[in-house]
Design goal:
Blueprint lengths: L4 H12 L4 H17 L5 H19 L3 H16 L6 H14 L2 H13 L5 H11 L4 H10 L3 H14 L4 H10 L3 H14 L5 H4 L9 H13 L4 H8 L5 H14 L5 H9 L6 H18 L5 H9 L11 H16 L5
């Protein structure tokens, strides 16, 4: 790469000139490799990045997404830290990506992603991924507006592939509140890219007006909550909603953590705060969860279900529940002692 500034202007003009592709593509490929391995933000480095920016923008303007994607990948990987560079070079990569994605060029890419009018929708999909966080707000807007399920799935897949750069935007929209059908998709995205730090965002959703949202929030917590999950689900047991309690009990069982036995037994022994049929249903779910956890610590509480009588000597529990408790006790007693 020469040091003369005039040579950069000449080369830039060549890049813009159509019909020059064969030789230029070979030069561009070499420059692209050079950028990947260069470690200092020298004059030459900045000039080459400017050239590749111009060339990539030109390719996208001609709907040549696949060719552009190889160049975009370099700057995307530098920006995201997948190719290790210093902060100055990462800032240059960020600026290149933003400059490439002008309103006009981004519209060309986004329209092809939506409409596939030139049969290059899949290539445009990869372009949006390479543009990273630049693509996220328009994709989230499309996710909210789209009435086409297959399109929504493509949008979710694109955002999932973008990954961590999309996360702050997803979190922001969940916290801002939105219609349940959009919230459902945002929670799905959080399940794919979130971590235990995001459990606080899910807590308010456990009392959401739409019945689908609390259950999905609990499932999301199971996916992202790590070692904070038991605490999260135990807290959910205090919510005055039968479906939320039942789902939380089920998920505590799936954790198979012995520390889940105490809160489940406390709930089992608690007085009914809901109609008898719902309390019975919840207690049956607790028996199943305790069986799954497999701890003998649950046996005393389960035996109370078998033996406890009311004032007139009639069991306060249904025959079905007493049978389930007895079966769970038998199962737990037959388990080998834990070493």
């Amino acid at each position: 790469v020469g040091h003369n500034a005039d040579s950069h202007h000449v080369f830039s003009a060549m890049l813009m000139e159509e019909g020059n592709d064969k030789g230029l593509r070979m030069i561009v490929d070499r420059l692209n490799i050079w950028v990947k391995f260069e470690s200092e933000a020298t004059f030459n480095f900045k000039a080459v990045c400017q050239l590749l920016q111009t060339y990539t923008q030109n390719l996208l303007g001609q709907h040549r997404f696949s060719e552009a994607n190889a160049l975009l990948e370099t700057f995307s990987f530098i920006h995201d830290g997948k190719i290790s560079k210093n902060n100055e070079i990462r800032d240059i990569a960020d600026n290149v990506l933003r400059s490439i994605a002008s309103d006009k060029i981004f519209k060309i890419v986004f329209d092809e992603f939506i409409e596939n009018s030139k049969g290059k929708g899949k290539d445009a999909y990869y372009t949006l991924i390479r543009l990273g966080k630049i693509s996220v707000p328009p994709l989230l807007d499309l996710l909210r507006q789209s009435e086409d399920m297959s399109q929504r799935i493509r949008v979710i897949n694109t955002l999932t592939e973008i990954g961590p750069p999309a996360l702050p935007f997803v979190v922001e929209r969940i916290q801002a509140g939105c219609p349940w059908f959009y919230m459902r998709n945002l929670i799905k995205l959080l399940s794919d890219m979130g971590n235990p730090d995001h459990l606080d965002i899910l807590r308010p959703l456990l009392t959401h007006d739409n019945e689908k949202i609390p259950r999905q929030a609990l499932n999301c917590a199971f996916d992202i909550g790590g070692d904070q999950r038991l605490k999260f689900f135990t807290q959910a047991l205090s919510i005055d909603n039968h479906d939320v309690k039942k789902a939380a009990v089920d998920l505590i069982g799936k954790l198979e953590n012995e520390d889940g036995v105490f809160p489940l037994c406390q709930l089992l022994k608690s007085g009914a705060t809901s109609p008898a049929d719902l309390k019975n249903e919840l207690d049956l779910t607790i028996c199943t969860a305790l069986k799954r956890i497999g701890s003998k610590k649950a046996i005393p509480s389960l035996k109370l279900i078998e033996t406890q009588k009311g004032i007139l000597g009639i069991s306060v529990y249904s025959p079905e529940l007493r049978q389930a408790a007895a079966a769970t006790v038998k199962h737990l007693q037959e388990l080998p002692a834990k070493i």
